Amino acid sequence: MSAPFGPGDRALLLDQRGRRYLVRLQSGGTFHSHAGTLAHDELLGRSEGTAVETTGGMRLVAFRPRLADDVLKMPRGAQVIYPKDLGPILIEADVFPGARVLEAGTGSGALTIALARAIGPTGRLVSYEVRDEHRERAAANVAAVLGAIPPQLELRAGDLRDVAATGERFDRCLLDVPEPWTVLDAVAAALEPGGVLGSYLPTAGQVQHLVGALPEAGFWHLETSETLRRSWHVGARSVRPEHRMVGHTGFLTIARRLG
Ligand SMILES: C[S@@+](CC[C@H](N)C(=O)[O-])C[C@H]1O[C@@H](n2cnc3c(N)ncnc32)[C@H](O)[C@@H]1O
Questions:
Q1: pTM of the model as a whole
Q2: Residue 256: which of 195, 186, 215 has the closest Cα?
C-alpha cells in the first residue's frame, strides 16, 4: 500500500476545491478534465501525495482512495450504506477478525467490502443477494476495491432464507433488506447463542415492525440508534458547520441471539 503508484493502481485525484476524481492508472493512459488532461505516466512510479498539474493548469494531489472514498465513488445498483454508518455498524455489531458473518442483501457491496476487511483472511463472510444484476455489480465493486474477491468472502445467489438448509453457523449477521422480520427464523437458526444481529433500515415504521418481531424470534438486548455526522468548514476567517449535511440515512437495530 505504501509503494509508488504502478500500472493498474487506482488513484484519487484531489483538486484545490476539494473535488475528487477516481482513476485507474495505465501506462500511456490519459485523465480528461474540464481543465485539460493529465498523462497517467506523470504519476506512475511516484509516491502518494505527489502534486501534478493538468495541461489547463489545474493542480491535483494523488492518493490511493480510502474505503470511504471508494464507497461514495463506486458504481451502484442498490443504494449503498454510507461511510458514516459503516463504522458504527462494524463496532455496534462487534465484527471482529476471524468472525463468521452472514449478510443480506449484498446490494452494491459497500457493507460487504467493510465486513470482508474487518474479519480478515481468517474469517468467513457469506453474503446473499436475490437479484443477479446487484450481485454482479457487487462482485465488480469488491474486485475493484480489494483487488480480487478475497478468499474469506462467498457471494451467494439467492434469498437469505436459503441459509437454513445449509446448516451453517455464524457469529454475526448483518441485514440490509426491506423486510427483515420475514427472515428472522432463518437468522435465528444460523446464529450462535450470543451472536449479534444488526439490521439497517431507512424508516421508523420498519424499525417498529422489526423490534416487535425480534423477542418472539429469540432475540434480546435490543438497541436502536441513528448516526448524525456534521462536517465543519475550517478556514482562516470562519470556523463553522457546513451549511449542508446528510439529514437522514438509516436506523441501526442491534439484537443478541438468546441461548
Ligand atoms: C439496500 S440494498 C443493500 C445495499 C448494501 N448494504 C450496500 O451497502 O451496498 C438491499 C439489497 O437486498 C436485496 N434483498 C432483499 N431481500 C433479500 C433477501 N431476503 N435475501 C437476499 N437479498 C435480499 C435486494 O435485492 C437489494 O439488492
A1: 0.95
A2: 195
